[in-house]
Amino acid sequence: MSNFMRVPPIKDPYDYIDNHPWDLAQRPFRIAPHVWYVSGNSYVGCYLLDTGDGLILIDTFEIRALYLLTEAIRDAGYSPKDIKMILLSHGHQDHCGGLRALQEMTRAKVYMSHEDYVVKQEHPDRVLFHYAPDFEPDVFFNDEKPITLGRFTIKTKLCPGHTPGTTSFFFDDVDEDGTVYRCGMHGGAGTPFLMTKFLVEYGYPLSYKQRFIDDCREMAKWDIDICLTSHHNMTNLLSGVNPEDPTDFSAFVDKNVWHDFMLERAADAENMV
Ligand SMILES: [Zn+2]
Fold this sequence. Notes:
Blueprint: H1 13-19, E1 29-32, E2 35-37, E3 47-50, E4 55-58, H2 66-75, E5 83-87, H3 93-96, H4 99-106, E6 109-112, H5 114-122, E7 139-140, E8 147-149, E9 152-158, E10 167-174, E11 180-185, H6 196-202, H7 208-220, E12 226-228, H8 255-270
Parallel strand pairs: 4-5, 5-6, 6-7, 11-12
Antiparallel strand pairs: 1-2, 2-3, 3-4, 8-9, 9-10, 10-11
Helix pairs in contact: 7-8
């Protein structure tokens, strides 16, 4: 198993974000025919989908270094003002901290899980570990109702564990030749919050751990060509970037990555005590 190597996460990311975000700078690159990695940084993965009828942004990074994201969108050839929808994978501020500013800038329709909205409202200290302006979403995800804009139809799957409302995304992207690339993103694959001490402290069901494991094992069976990760280190995503050509996504097309990543996450969760 594992044709990818998990690399260590960045130590003390808030020091980078507050004091020297430029040291995290990452040029945008294409990861699927109409999908770009646009977080502008090498810590959090945010993705821009060019639907042909406006843009969809998955996750928003942190408010204090938001310029990295907006500049990356422009660098990829798009305007942040064309974002029509913003989808949040989960309520941690490294994924939603930039949301309010982007909402003001774009008036985009904002989707998140009802579960994480409730946590954010009632116990913000469980999801906001760093400053993030408050926001209101427009729509809550419904796994029975895919989200459609232009060429994309995005299916969601509630995957509790990392947070109660962590949401994974699945969609097809079709290139000019008609080749279909099935894309998948686990909304929050980090396992430390599955430790019993956190689950007890937060009052979450201990069954979250087994649910996370079961979800990963089920999703491992799904046929996914391109694995998008919410933190690049989880699959060493940046190693697939072609420095000569940021539009070359060929290195990201590998069914084994998703499969192995899901099983590795399930195994990692099993080791959490
Ligand atoms: Zn998180």
